Amino acid sequence: xxxxxxxxxxxxxxxxxxxxxxVAVHVRNRGTIGGVLAHSDPQAxxxxxxxxxxxxxxxxxxxxxxxxxxxxxxxxxxxxxxxENGILTSVRIPTDSANANSCxxxxxxxxxxxxxxxxxxxxxxxxxxxxxxxxxxxxxESLFRDSGVEDSIRGQALNESLxxxxxxxxxxxxxxxxxxxxxxxxxxxxxQVYAKRAxxxxxxxxxxxxxxx
Length: 213
Known about the structure:
This protein is of the alpha+beta class.
């Protein structure tokens, strides 16, 4: 995921950026995307990205296969909506122009690189933004799409003023984690900072329908 030209350059640069920042190299070499998503750790990188990329998560269980929207998949701290006897078999990512125009930025814990705040954004780069998706990791106990940021931008031409207004909405209405390293107040402020940074980096790309990893 980190080094694939197909993903990095063409279809999901935000996914590759998350892989490149995902804790230590030896952990990345052994861990799997399925394991990360099934664990539902709010301070993991991939959950925020799959939310922004509008991916679908596909687990298999005794009742057969299910297809789950990530907004319905992550239900709480280390909790998901699929059965304990299930196994996550695939993650399906649309190949749309928003995902080709995606990015992921994070505020990491300096030693172990887990996520204090991670912001993933996917959006069209036309004059009128028909679509924008923003996913956060590390902010709330539950991973979430940030509708406040999305609604502030959708259908408008992006400019510095609009980015300022939209990023100020980051994590609004969400409970925010607090720990001995990062307080709730500081983490909320960093959610706004990283939303603003993420909203400023979009080279325009176009592409073709759906791929499977």
